[in-house]
Amino acid sequence: MMKKILCTIILLWLLVPGWAQEFKVASFRLLPNDITAWVNPVRDLNDEACALIKVVGNRDFAFSTPLGIVQRKNEVGEIWLYVPNGTRKITIKHPRWGVLRDYKFPVILESRLTYELVIEEPLLKVEEEYPRVRKVHRPLPNTPLDESLRAMPTGKLKSQRPAFTSLFTIGWDHERPAFGVMLACMKKHGLYVHGQADLKSLSVDGECRKNGSIPSTGDTPYYTGSEKYSRYAFLAGGIHSIASLCYLYEGLGYGKRQVVWETIEGLKLRNKDYSYKGIAAELGLLVKVRKMALSLGVITIKGEYWEPTVGVGINF
User: What's the CA gap between 276 and 258, in Å, rounded?
Assistant: First the structure.
C-alpha cells in the first residue's frame, strides 16, 4: 500500500509542472556603465530620483518593497523596477512558483544608479505533442554572482560620477557687498574655483597714510570725509568630504582691496595703510541639503584684511 502511494506522489510530481518547484536570485550587481536612471530619472513622492533595478526573469513575477515600487516597465527580455533611494529588500512572487520574501540586497540602493537582478527559474519539464518525445527546457544561463558583491555583502556602492556644485556668493565689507561665483567638482575629494568682486573701478591721483599725510611731501591736506572702496579676489583649491553632507574647502589666489580718500581740492588719494594686494587665501565649509548647497567661509589678503562670505547654490 505504501509503495503505491509513494509511486503516485512521484508520478504526480513528474507530470504536473510547478509542483515542488522553487526559484531563486542567481545574481545581483551594479551596472556602472548604465546611465538609464541618470539620464531619464523617475522621481518618488518626495521628488527624489529613484534607483533602477533591471530584472532578468519571467514577466509573471510580481514585486514589492517596504518603500514601494514607484514604477514598473516591461521591456524586451527584462523588467524595469524604479524604487526609492535607500531600498534594502524586495519580495518576489510568482503565481506558480511561490514567494521569495524579503530578499536583502547586498548593498543599499542609491538614486540614479542602475542594478541588475537575475532570477533563476525552476527546471521545467514539458512533454511535447509528439509521442515518445520529451524535451527539457531550461532558462538561459544566468550571469554569475559578481565577486565584488560577495566580498562586501554589507557595503555601499558609490557612484563613479563626480558631483558638481555651483554657488552664488556674497562677501561683506563696510556695508558694501561683493558678489561672486563658486564652482566645485568632487567625489570624496575634488577641486573648486571662486571669483568675487564688487565691480567697482577707482582712479587715484596719489597716496596718503592712515593719518592723512602724503608720504612724498609730509603735508596733510583737508579731506571731505568721503571714502570709496573697491576689491576683488580670485582663488582656487581643494575641497574634501569630512562627513556625509559636509565638505571643507581651502584655496589660494590673488586679491586686491583699495580705500580712497578725497581731499577738498578733489584729489583722490589711495590710503596705503588700509589698502592691500597680493596673495589671498580662503577657508570655508560647504553643506549639501538635497539639491541645495550652502557655504560659509572667510577670505584674507596677506593675513591683513579679512572678509566673511556666504553662498547658496545647487547640486548637479
Answer: 7
